[in-house]
Amino acid sequence: MKITMHQINQQQNHLLSVTSEISFDEVVRSVRNLAGLSPIHVDLQLQKVSDNRVEVTGRLSGEMTLICSRCLKRFPQKFIVELEETFTSAPIDDESDDYAIEQGELDLTEMLRENLVLAIPFAPVCEEDCKGICAVCGNNRNEQHCTCEQEQVDPRFEKLQSLFGGKNQK
Ligand SMILES: [Zn+2]
Ligand SMILES: [Zn+2]
Known about the structure:
25% of the residues lie in helices and 37% in strands. It has 2 domains: 2-118, no CATH class; 131-170. It has helices spanning 5-9, 25-30, 108-118, 149-169, and strands at 2-4, 15-22, 34-37, 40-50, 53-67, 74-88, 99-102, 105-107. By secondary structure, the chain is of the alpha+beta class. It starts with a strand and ends with a helix. Strand 7 (99-102) and strand 8 form a beta hairpin. The longest helix is centred in the last third of the chain and has 21 residues, at 149-169. Strands 1, 2, 3, 4, 5, 6, 7 and 8 form an 8-stranded mixed beta sheet that branches. The site of one zinc ion has 6 residues, from loops.
């Protein structure tokens, strides 16, 4: 999704509004915990503030399908990302978060993708009190109660105790 400086210059007050829908299917493939993504609705204002600088504000919205990090269930989650970024044709140093205007063009896609990825939770949970999957029998403990819990904890605890006991004796 590219916008040219020429398009911005043609606007009154050098302010260009852009609305669009973009699909980011490759993000679904590359981000763990993400199972699906609706087309992203993009609503941006591009304001030229000087000859080599454009400020971009606006929002992304859509719906993502997340994979619960505890029980692996898929669940939908609506999201809105507010963004504020700067594009510049001046040299960009390493510490700057600015995006480049190259040959009079602003490539919005990478900027939008980065803002989208930041909005994906690192460890999503389907419900705050999701009990997760039993490490012993593999049951989803939200759906099925199992009695493994005791046997799961005890042997490890005993092993740990004997380990510590052994070290203390030396
Ligand atoms: Zn869950
Ligand atoms: Zn179990």
